[in-house]
Specification:
The protein is mainly α. The protein has one domain. The chain is built from 6 helices and no strands. It is globular, with a radius of gyration of 15 Å. The two termini are 24 Å apart.
Length: 141
């Protein structure tokens, strides 16, 4: 599976989670994993100001400055807070807010080239293939 590097790729991946009928646990796992990857990806949210704006606008969370010093620490803190308050009905709202934020905000994205069209079908096939692999592994145990 290819690495997600552009905001368009993230928007497509979040929409896949939102459109498909995954189990509640699969949706939660995919959402949290993709959110972790978004926060730790330096090409999308490049600096502390971008991260703070994203967290405040989408998740309505205020963290102290020291939390923003390390992306893995920020991501784990946010994911922990979301997991504690997890409500399946609000995940769809979070996904839509993230997609709107990425689409509308003037986030510099080096990988956004209008001449390059990415196939959402390929990404969806990768996600479905991954789930099939995971499902086979859990049934064999």
């Amino acid at each position: 599976m290819k690495k997600i590097e552009s905001k368009k790729d993230f928007i497509i991946e979040f929409s896949v989670i939102n459109k498909n009928k995954f189990t509640l646990q699969q949706t939660k796992s995919l959402f949290l994993g993709l959110l972790y990857e978004l926060i730790t990806e330096r090409n999308i949210l490049k600096n502390k100001k971008d991260l703070e704006g994203f967290i405040k606008e989408v998740f309505k969370k205020n963290y102290k400055d020291y939390v923003f010093r390390g992306r893995p620490y920020l991501a784990s803190r946010l994911l922990n807070d979301i997991s504690k308050e997890y409500d399946p009905s609000i995940v769809s709202t979070y996904i839509k807010l993230i997609m709107v934020y990425l689409d509308e905000k003037d986030i510099n994205d080096e990988n956004d080239d209008p001449r390059v069209q990415r196939s959402s079908k390929t990404i969806e096939d990768n996600v479905i293939g991954w789930f099939n692999t995971v499902s086979k592994g859990s049934k064999e145990k």
